[in-house]
Recover the amino acids of this structure.
């Protein structure tokens, strides 16, 4: 499925900046990130039993009242909750704690997800402090349908403290430290996104 560059809502820039860079927040247990030398690197396969940590970051850090959770149920991760626009809020997210990885070169990510018809963003970082650029790639879901989404590295938009960065390097998966999911863009109400797998897609050799 084609992806589109992320459009940021300036009214929520400050909220997103603080929330996505927040430090001490509740964490949840999921599958550990793992790497291998094969063309496809499995980052998460939620059918497996693992120990990695996912962290919930909602707009309540700035007075909002949105809620969310990230749990593993029947072999899939379920990111669900309710987004509220009250108190200038309007987003919910889940992310992994920073962990240095040794992911081989890739052309993008492949997500196997089942959504509710709303738009979500897959996020990635290359720093360990949550104070560097946050790369985001928006994708649409089909209500109740499993989809395999291919997100190209060149379509990830680098942002910092709510601003789109210009002249920033492309996302380099070999420096990947954290991934996550975000729902925002004035989409109020209940939401649910199921995630079965997150992998990288191999680089296709150019023909000589």
């Amino acid at each position: 499925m084609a992806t589109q560059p992320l459009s940021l809502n300036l009214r929520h820039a400050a909220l997103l900046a603080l929330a996505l860079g927040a430090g001490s927040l509740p964490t949840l247990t999921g599958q550990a990130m793992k790497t291998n030398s094969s063309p496809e690197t499995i980052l998460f396969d939620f059918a497996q039993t693992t120990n990695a940590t996912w962290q919930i970051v909602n707009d309540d850090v700035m007075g909002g009242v949105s809620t969310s959770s990230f749990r593993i149920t029947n072999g899939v991760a379920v990111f669900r909750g309710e987004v509220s626009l009250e108190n200038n809020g309007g987003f919910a997210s889940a992310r992994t704690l920073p962990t240095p990885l040794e992911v081989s070169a890739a052309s993008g990510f492949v997500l196997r997800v089942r959504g509710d018809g709303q738009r979500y963003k897959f996020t990635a970082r290359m720093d360990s402090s949550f104070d560097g650029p946050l790369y985001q790639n928006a994708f649409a879901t089909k209500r109740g349908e499993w989809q395999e989404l291919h997100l190209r590295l060149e379509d990830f938009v680098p942002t910092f403290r709510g601003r789109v960065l210009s002249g920033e390097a492309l996302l380099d998966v070999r420096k990947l430290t954290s991934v996550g999911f975000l729902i925002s863009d004035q989409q109020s109400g209940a939401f649910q996104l199921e995630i079965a797998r997150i992998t990288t897609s191999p680089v296709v050799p150019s023909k000589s």
